[in-house]
Specification:
Number of strands: 6
Oligomer: single chain
Largest sheet: 4 strands, antiparallel
Structural class: alpha+beta
Radius of gyration: 22 Å
Helix content: 55-70%
Number of helices: 4
Order of helices and strands: HEEEEHEEHH
Length: 184
């Protein structure tokens, strides 16, 4: 029956990792290579992730430099960035693409915090659903005579403790992201 608890924990870990990846794509006032994770470039007819065709570096807090391995891709990369939802303006000097990350306005920062809170809430809901599924499995095992009532109670307590731990972790991640977004 520890299988039920460990499966639930594994699924909650996946939800938390997914939240962390989503948070990485949220644009804050700081430059980060993770901002460009969702950008795909047309590379010989294939939509290829930007980080697979270029080096993305952050030499300064508000500057991103993208250096393609194939210079012929400069135009494609520039076009892909302009068409993305990042709202940044790339400048191409024939060798590299430089992107200045402008500071966010107060209103935009508050909007991004709302987006982050929504992402965190979706993660919490996913964890609660995982808990509910695990609790149902435990009840089914009791009904089928696979476990005793004492074991049922113990496993349910473990599942609840695991859920509480992940809820605290989600809150910590959200708090850190909010702080990052709101800093000027």
């Amino acid at each position: 029956m520890d299988k039920i608890t460990s499966q639930a924990e594994e699924r909650m870990k996946k939800s938390l990792r997914s939240l962390q990846e989503e948070f990485n794509t949220l644009r804050t006032g700081r430059a980060s290579p993770a901002l460009f994770d969702k950008i795909r470039v047309d590379y010989y007819g294939q939509k290829t992730p930007l980080n697979q065709v270029a080096t993305i570096s952050v030499p300064e807090a508000r500057l991103v430099v993208i250096q393609p391995w194939d210079k012929a891709l400069l135009g494609e990369i520039e076009k892909a960035i302009q068409m993305s939802e990042l709202s940044v303006n790339p400048s191409n000097d024939g060798k590299v693409i430089r992107i200045n990350i402008p500071p966010l306005s107060e209103a935009r920062r508050k909007e991004l915090v709302k987006v982050a809170k929504n992402m965190a809430e979706q993660c919490r809901v996913a964890c609660r659903n995982i808990r509910r599924d695990a609790m149902d499995e435990v009840k089914k095992a009791l009904k089928n005579g696979e476990i005793t009532e004492d074991q049922e109670k113990k496993i349910q307590d473990e599942i609840q403790k695991t859920t509480d731990r992940f809820m605290m972790e989600i809150n910590k991640e959200l708090e850190a992201k909010e702080k990052e977004i709101m800093e000027v």
